Amino acid sequence: MVQELLRAHASVRKYKDYSLSREEVSELVKTAQHAASSHFVQAYSVIWVTDVEKKEELGRLSRNPKQFETAGAALLLCADFHRLQVAGQIHDTKIEMDTTENVLVGTVDVALFAQNLVIAAESKGFGICYIGGVRNEPEEISRLFDLPEGVFPLFAITLGVPDQENEVKPRLPVEAILHENIYDSSKYETLLKEYDQTMEEYYASRGSNQKVANWTKQMADFLESPRRPHMAKFLASKGFQLK
């Protein structure tokens, strides 16, 4: 049952007219908190955006306004070392948060927390969509939600009762992901050509937004140039010098 739920995941971008209650959101967050956390630092915080104007602005700044319009709940997920600073102050200790390792720890903590939340939401019949576009304007989003030093936004999640669902995208073959004892790149040329064919058939036959495309060309175009180079300067402004 759990495996079937996980394999059925697809992003939902249009929702029915239903707003999640405080009890529902709190229950999802409580469940998500039981994700693994490196050294139990629990370096995450969630901003539940209930203010209509703030939600609209978050959509605009994320360059995904339509995904927020019908959402039954909008959540901004942040890596959070400010709370850990307070923990250190209780013991007259200044914590060293501005390391590359801590940025990785916070990012992983948020991702694990978020995936727990998503699985819990989908198990209750809700649909979700991750919004990485939050990192397009992290400074303005930080000001919008009064994020202090030590806290930086990673992505948002919209969720609600699905009004329009997408087909599940075929994933890479297991053989492309799973290596045994050594990393074997010799298999990629064959496997990726086969996967391109699978994706071309998927894009051509899916119910909406049909197009001619394959995975390797999309990735080549996507990663040809640096993405969001402003993030290094932004993280430094939030106290992370990446030592």
Describe the structure.
This protein is an alpha+beta fold and 243 residues long. It folds into two domains: 2-167 and 228-237, NADH Oxidase (3-Layer(aba) Sandwich), CATH 3.40.109.10; 174-216, no CATH class. The protein has eleven helices and six strands. The strands form two sheets. Strands 2-3-5-4 form a four-stranded antiparallel beta sheet, with helices on both faces. Strands 1-6 form a two-stranded antiparallel sheet. α2 (22-32) packs across α6 (100-123). The longest helix has 24 residues, at 100-123. The relative contact order is 0.17. The mean pLDDT is 96.
What's a concise summary of this model?
This protein is α+β, with helices and mostly antiparallel strands and 243 residues long.
Strand content: 5-15%
Number of domains: 2
Note the gap between the termini: 44 Å
Treating each run of at least 4 consecutive H or I residues as one helix, how many helices?
Answer: 11
What labels would you give this structure?
243 residues; 11 helices; NADH Oxidase; alpha+beta; two-stranded antiparallel ribbon; four-stranded antiparallel β-sheet
